[in-house]
Write a structure and sequence with these properties.
The complex is a heterodimer of chains A (115) and B (111). By secondary structure, chain A is an all-beta fold. Chain A has no helices and eleven strands. In chain A, the strands form two sheets. In chain A, strands 2, 4, 5, 6, 9, 10 and 11 form a seven-stranded mixed sheet that branches. In chain A, strands 1-3-8-7 form a four-stranded antiparallel sheet, with no helix packed on it. In chain A, strand 7 and strand 8 form a beta hairpin. Chain B is an all-beta fold and 111 residues long. Helix content of chain B is 0%, strand content 50%. Chain B contains no helices and ten strands. In chain B, strands 1, 3, 4, 8, 9 and 10 form a six-stranded mixed sheet that branches. Chain B has a four-stranded antiparallel sheet with strand order 2-7-6-5, with no helix packed on it. In chain B, strand 3 and strand 4 form a beta hairpin. The radius of gyration of chain B is 13 Å and the shape is globular. The chains are: A mainly beta (115), B mainly beta (111). At the A-B interface, strand 5, strand 9 and strand 10 of A face strand 3, strand 4 and strand 8 of B.
């Protein structure tokens, strides 16, 4: 089973709202990732968690706050977003991280619209 | 950091081989080449990866030149369901972790 699940599939929020995106995997992977993808562009890496610790933050604004409660779950908390943050948010996981040969498996994404 | 260059679009006839090129002329010795595809805003799907040697799996073959400055993804018998955006990615692990997506090639398989 190489499934990564993400909820919700779609999310509409106002600029003053607080919402969370959820990602889950049951493959025993120890690394999890958040990506942002704008229309007709490749995904951009936002965060990497390894063994439940934040390993990489690609200079993401603080209105995006990641959380890894356990090895199977990854959340992305959203607060005071801007309309330009509207995008497809993708979660991925891999067995390990850091050696360079670990395949990432992606979820279907959450399509976010900020009004 | 390694950069990747891909043609923006390609066409292929159904049943024929699709050969998708990627240039990564600044790749370092410890950086992997990965290929993913994405069908109409679904999550990217892993296809294949390699470091130095050519690789083959049930989906595709990956040919990496000896100098590692370019690679080609080969879908041996393209079907209509292979129509997607194909991304070439260079990945460096370790303490200087870096993942670089190419801009992608839209492959259209025609009947």
């Amino acid at each position: 089973d190489t499934e990564v699940t993400q909820t919700p599939k779609h999310l509409v929020m106002g600029m003053t709202n607080k919402k969370s995106l959820k990602c889950e995997q049951h493959m025993g992977h120890r690394a999890m990732y958040w990506y942002k993808q704008k229309a007709k562009k490749p995904p951009e890496l936002m965060f990497v968690y390894s063994y439940e610790k934040l390993s990489i933050n690609e200079s993401v604004p603080s209105r995006f706050s990641p959380e890894c409660p356990n090895s199977s779950l990854l959340n992305l908390h959203l607060h005071a977003l801007q309309p330009e943050d509207s995008a497809l948010y993708l979660c991925a996981s891999s067995q390990g991280w850091g050696a360079g040969g670990e395949t990432q498996y992606f979820g279907p994404g959450t399509r976010l619209l900020v009004l | 950091d390694a950069k990747t260059t891909q043609p923006p679009s390609m066409d292929c006839a159904e049943g024929r081989a699709a050969n998708l090129p990627c240039n990564h002329s600044t790749i370092s010795g410890n950086e992997y080449v990965y290929w993913y595809r994405q069908i109409h805003s679904q999550g990217p799907q892993y296809i294949i990866h390699g470091l130095k040697n050519n690789e083959t799996n049930e989906m595709a073959s990956l040919i990496i030149t000896e100098d590692r400055k370019s690679s080609t993804l080969i879908l041996p018998h393209a079907t209509l369901r292979d129509t997607a955006v194909y991304y070439c990615i260079v990945l460096r692990g370790g303490s200087n972790y870096k993942l670089t997506f190419g801009k992608g090639t839209l492959l259209t398989v025609n009947p």
